[in-house]
Specification:
- There is one protein chain.
- The protein is rod-shaped.
- It is α+β, with helices and mostly antiparallel strands and 376 residues long.
- The protein has three helices and 28 strands.
- It has a domain of 163 residues.
Length: 376
């Protein structure tokens, strides 16, 4: 009887030790599970967070608007030859020294002479508008430079019924530029004043002894229509964009996309090696005709190339913090998530492998210290 009671007394501390061992093992298992659980939660969070990306965008549009950034070149556009150039919303056009021949004008109804031909000669021939919608058209000139202030709002518009025509509009208060031409210049003046004379739709001929550089200016914005030779590149070096890159226009009560052909957006940092060709391929997003494209949070964003060919072919490059594309009502975020970026760069695999290595090492150490039963 005494021996039996003594056996029961001896079993109590043994049971306590087993319970304590089980608790320790349970705590160890929880400790080992925690890193993997934390990794799962971290990966879920990374899948929800978008990463700003370096992109190159190639689009064909009928209109594009943007705010110029800094640094910017002295001129918005490199010197470019035109078939014709039309100035609108200008303040004055200074042709320089020479002789301006004003053609005679007759009444189209009865051919009566409204005023005879005459000449204006001087060291500075000025043309000024007489109304807000006045314009000056010039044939075969070179746009030498077009100076604007940083943060000016610029709109480039392709004129559909004139395939090689581009309208450049600036809402900046002060714009100036230069137009280069040979010794003879054919032009027409609509609603303008020359030497105290007013004209409507008048043809003119300006002559000088040498090649001239005429200067124009505007104080309430400026619009220029450029009719270019086919395939002309308008921009051959980088133009910095600050914000408000828009590919849409207002038509009545509707906002319309200006995308007129398929385009693509390439992510410079999202590269994968093709299993077939073993070549690096960048992630791309296709842009369809009529899609809306929203760009925001631009950093170092530039216009690399701009060419007129039945539309405005434009190539953009830089880092972007917001990118959305898609048809009306289905615009989606296209930026890669942090998880997608990590998977492409294989950084997350190194993290997982490190966790597995640490976990197996801890288990091996615990087995050697007899905290965990060794595998049979």
């Amino acid at each position: 009887m005494y021996k039996i009671e003594s056996g029961k007394e001896q079993q109590v501390p043994v049971r306590k030790k087993l319970d304590q061992k089980r608790r320790e093992l349970r705590n160890l298992r929880l400790l080992l599970v925690l890193p993997f659980a934390a990794t799962a939660i971290l990966l879920a969070l990374l899948a929800l967070v978008n990463k700003d990306s370096e992109v190159e965008i190639s689009l064909k549009v009928s209109q594009i608007s943007f705010v110029l950034g800094e640094p910017k070149p002295a001129s918005l556009i490199d010197p470019i030859k035109t078939d014709s150039l039309n100035l609108q919303r200008y303040e004055q056009l200074d042709l320089g020294a020479g002789v301006l021949e004003i053609k005679a004008k007759t009444n189209p109804n009865n051919n009566a002479l409204l005023f005879p031909p005459r000449q204006v000669e001087g060291d500075r021939i000025l043309i000024k508008p007489s109304v807000n919608h006045a314009s000056v058209w010039m044939k075969g000139v070179t746009l030498d430079h077009l100076d604007t202030k940083p943060r000016s709002f610029v709109t480039l518009k392709w004129i559909e019924d004139k395939p090689n025509c581009l309208r450049v509009s600036m809402d900046d208060e002060e714009v100036s530029g230069g137009i280069r031409f040979s010794k003879s210049l054919y032009l027409s003046c609509d609603y303008c004043e020359i030497d105290s004379l007013s004209f409507e739709g008048q043809f003119l001929l300006f002559k000088s002894e040498r090649e001239q550089l005429a200067y124009f200016s505007a104080r309430s914005g400026l619009a220029i229509d450029l009719v270019l030779p086919s395939g002309t590149k308008l921009i051959e070096r980088d133009i910095y964009i600050e914000k408000d890159m828009k590919f849409n226009k207002q038509e009545g009560n509707r906002m319309m996309s200006t995308i007129i052909d398929t385009g693509k957006i390439r992510f410079e940092e999202m590269k994968k090696v093709s299993k077939d060709s073993f070549e690096e391929k960048k992630k791309e997003v296709k842009v369809q005709v009529g899609d809306f494209v929203t760009l925001d949070d631009l950093k170092g964003f530039i216009i690399k190339e701009l060419k007129i060919d039945n539309g405005i072919n434009i190539t953009l490059h830089g880092r972007i913090g917001k990118l959305e594309t898609g048809p009306a009502g289905s615009v989606k975020n296209r930026l890669p998530s942090l998880l997608e970026w990590l998977s492409v760069n294989q950084t997350w695999m190194l993290y997982i492998n490190a966790l597995i290595l640490i976990g197996t090492t801890i288990l091996a150490v615990l087995e050697r210290l007899k905290f965990v039963p060794e595998k049979k």
